[in-house]
Amino acid sequence: MSPATFIPALSLITVLLSRLASAQTFTSCNPLNTTTCPSNPALSTNHTFDLLTSSFPDSAWNTTAGTLTYPSTGADFTIATRGDTPTIQSKFYLFGGECEVWLRAAPGQGVVSSIVLQSDDLDEVDWELVGGNNTHVQSNYFGKGNTTSYDRALWHPVADPQKDFHNYTTRWTHEQLEWFIDGAPIRTLKYAEANGGKNFPQTPMNVRIGVWAAGDKDNNNYTVEWAGGVTDYNKGPYTMSVSSVRVRDFSSGKEYSYGDTSGSWDSIKIAPGNSTISDELNKPPPMTASQRWNHLSPGAKAGVAGAVGASCVVMILLAAVYCVRQRRAGRKERALADGQFEYETRELMEYRAKMSKGGFAVSSREV
Asked: What is the signed CA dihedral for 306, 310, 312, 315, rounded to 10 degrees?
């Protein structure tokens, strides 16, 4: 067993209740009970979601509770009032793979930040970061929702998880599970060590990231104790920040389905074809105008240049015609104005001539 640190004051009951800490865990159709569950869309690629420059894309993630904000530190998951449980879940599944999350845990007594990989048949791999514990984080796992034993949770030292970003990575094959903090391995679980493989997580899993108040006063006492005490919402808000998520699917194909109700890794069927989510994530961004021009063939460029040249000639001709018409119209208007001026000038001169000859004099008999 890889080195890990147990919290001495942690009772067996509170370890048991760590199962309840995974607030993001649920399944809408359990393949252990039926063979009609929908297939799981495969990721079938390696992709990094840089949350410092963009948000979680709707093509790959669902916000299942609350809302996320995106300040300069990445994606923020915030408990502002009682009942807030901001959570995001991937639309894709990994069938073996890696999940690497750069995360700063939410502070606050009773507040739990979680990274969960979970399958439809309740295989599960967890990171749990308790807000009141600034020296350790917890790793855990479950197979098929089995809670008959409670010795799976281990606590690992980490410096200031509520103050600093750390890299929490899970690497998973059908042979073993590994947990890493900041690139250093801190735990390894072999297939046979998980109850002979019966409790080993081995079916396609999606990714769930969120924060919740395990210390809410309405939760049972054991859950509140595990979370470090009752949550005081008046001291909030409590924010978990995620700056980056990298996921890698070790399998390739369009989707995964369960061949029977055994829940074993070798019963999983991989449908051939391209992953629609992978295609969407790897789709190149729209080209700029200069990039589109550079991608044209010489003949196409010549055609475009010719069309542009012809358009310019047409525009010049139209402008010339417009100017000629305007000049002609201006001449007509000037001629009319000059004619009117000459007419008014003649009338004025005739009036002055008559005035000088007394043509408009008033007689004394009219006075």
From this structure: -160
- Residue 50 is inside which H or E element, if any? strand 46-50
Closest by Cα among 272, 259, 284, 269 to 44:
272
Please write the tens of the pLDDT for every residue from 100-132.
Answer: 999 999 999 999 999 999 999 999 999 999 999
Residues, the chain: 367
Is the Cβ–Cβ distance between 66 and 161 less than 8 Å? no
CA-nearest of 201, 208, 203 to 256 is 203
Name the pTM for this structure.
0.75
Just list the catalytic residues. Answer: 124, 128
* Beta strands per DSSP E along 80-236: 87-90, 97-104, 111-119, 124-130, 136-142, 154-157, 166-172, 176-181, 184-190, 205-213
Helix (H) and strand (E) counts in the chain? 5, 18
The answer to whether the beta carbons of residues 275 and 253 sit under 8 Å apart is yes
Q: Which amino acid is at 283?
A: K
Distance CA 255, CA 276 (A): 9
Q: Which amino acid is at 255?
A: E
Nearest to 207 by CA among 149, 248, 177, 238: 248
In whole angstroms, what is the distance from residue 94 CA to residue 203 CA? Answer: 9
Check if the beta carbon of residue 276 is closer than 8 Å to that of residue 92.
no
Task: Indicate the helix (H) or strand (E) that contains 41.
Answer: strand 40-41
Element (H, E) at 244: strand 238-249
Average pLDDT over residues 147-161: 89
Radius of gyration from C-alpha coordinates of the chain = 39
Q: What is the DSSP string of 153-173?
A: -EEEE-S-TTTS-EEEEEEE-
- Side chain identity, residue 259: G
pLDDT tens digits for range 244-301: 999 999 999 999 999 999 999 999 999 999 999 999 998 886 666 665 657 777 877 6
